[in-house]
Amino acid sequence: MEYKFGGSITNQKTVLGHPSGLFVLFFTEMWERFSYYGMRALLVLFLISTVIDGGWGWERADATLLYGWYTGLVYLTPIIGGFIADKFTGYRNAIIIGALLMTLGHASMALEGFTSNFFYLGLTLLILGNGMFKPNISSIVGQLYKSQGKEKDAGYTIFYMGINAGAFLGILLCGYIGESPDWGWHYGFGLAGIFMFFGMLQFYFAQKIFGRIGLSPSKTQDFDDAVENEYEKTTEVVEEIADEAKRSIVTRDRLIVISVFAFFTIFFWWAFEQAGSSMTIFANDYTDRVLEGNGAVAFKVVNTLLTVGPMLIITYVLLMLFRQTFSKYGLANILLAISFVIIWIIVIYMLFKQFNDPAPEVPASWFGILNSFFIIAFAPLFSKIWESKYNPSGPVKFAVGLILLGLGFGFLAYGSMSVPLGAKTASLSMIFLVVAYLLHTLGELCVSPVGLSYVSKLAPVKLVGLMFGIWFTANFIANLTAGWTASYLDPIVEGYGLATFFGIFAAIPIAAGLVMLAINKWMISKMHGVR
Known about the structure:
This protein is mainly alpha-helical. 76% of the residues lie in helices and 1% in strands. The chain is built from 18 helices and two strands. It has helices at residues 20-48, 60-89, 91-110, 116-143, 150-179, 185-206, 223-242, 244-272, 278-285, 293-325, 330-355, 369-387, 394-415, 431-458, 464-486, 489-495, 498-518, 520-527, and strands at 14-15, 18-19. The chain has a two-stranded antiparallel ribbon. The longest helix is centred in the middle third of the chain and has 33 residues, at 293-325.
C-alpha cells in the first residue's frame, strides 16, 4: 500500500485536508514561537525598568545593544544546528535538544533575581536552543509531502499560521504577566518556558507519527530510497555535463540575484526589528496608554475579540487533531490539552482583570501582537494577489515592502514632531503605533515569503544550503545593526528630536525600495526565466 503522505499510517489521517503530523509540528512550533516572542517582548522593557520596579535600570543604549546581539545570533546558530542535524543527530533529536535547551534558558532567566549570571546563561541557552530547533522543524514539514505542488505550499502556509499564533499569544500573555505589578518580570520569563516544555513533551511522545522522517542520518534511508537517491545523483551529473557551458553563466547570474536580495533584506530587517527595541521604548515612554471612558471600553472589547477569536480557532484545530491521533498518541494529546487549559485560564484571568479596571493601562508589549494579527488578517489577501494576474515580480514585491516599511516609520516620525528635543517621555496617541505596525506588516508580507522562496528557486541544488547560510548571515547583520542603531536613540533625540530618529528609518528603506524598482528589469533578466 502506497501512502499519500510521508510518515506512518496514522499520518495519513487528515486534519483540514493535511496530514495529522503537520499539526503536531504546528503546535510544537506554536509553543516555541510563544516562548521566543514572549521573552523578546519583555527583554528591553525589563532591562530599562527601574530596580524598584524589578528591572535592572539599564540605559536605553545598553538594552537595545544587547537586544541586537541576541536577535542577531538567533539567525547565526541555525546554520550550525542544521549542519549538526544533517550529519549527526537527525532532525527529530535536534528539535528535542533545542526545545530542552530553550526550556532551561527560560528557567534560568526566571531565576535572574538570585544572580545576573542566570540571565546571561538563559540568553545563551535560548540562542543555542533556537539554532538546533528552528531549521530542523521546517525540514520535517517539507518531508511530509511527496509532491512539490500547491498542497505542500498550503502546508507551509498552515505552519506559518502556527508561528504567528504562537507569537501573538506569547507577546500578549507573557507581556501582560511580565508587566503586571501583581506578577512581575520573572513570571513572564518563566511562563514562556512552561509552554516550551509542553511543546517539547508533545513532540517527543508523538514523534513516531513521522515514521522514518527526521531520524538520525543512518536510519533515514531504506534500500529503495538509497537506490532512488543514487539514480537522481547520476542523472544530475549527466545533466550538468550536458549543460555545463550554459549553466556557468545562468548559475552565476542567479547567484548574483540572490546576493542582491540578501543585501536589500538587510535594510528591511534593520528597520523592521526596531519593533522590539526603539518602538517598544516609544510605546513605553512616549505613548499615552492609560484609557478612560469610551476609550477604555473600546480597548476591552477589541482586546477580547483579538484574544478569544484566535484561541477558539486554535482550540478547534486541537480537537480535530485529537479525533485523528488520540487513540495512538494519547499522552501527547493530554499534554497538549493541559497546556491549552493553562492558556485559557490565563486568558480569562487577564480579560477579567481588564474588564474590572475602570482605567486600564495598555501594556507596552501589547502593540507587538498587532504584527501577528495583521499577518493573520491580510495573508489570505496577499496570497490571492500573488496567485492572480496582478502578481508582480520578486524585485517589485521587495521594493513595495521596503517602501511600506518606510512609510510606517514616516507616520511615527510625523507623530513625534511635537515631542521636544531631549524629552524622555510624552503622551502621544496610540494610533501612530497601530498604523505603523499595519504598514510594517503589509511590507513584511511582500518581503518575507519572497526572499526565502527565491533562494530556493534560484540556487543550484548543491548550493542551496550555502545560499540559505548567506541569507541567515544577512539577517544576523540586520538584527545586530538594528540594535546598534537603536542604541543611539537618546543622543539623536537630544540633538535632533524623536521625529528625526524615526525619519532615518523612513528615508533609508524608501530609498532602498526605489533603487530596487529601478533595477527590476535587470534583476528579471538575471533570473533567466525563474519567476
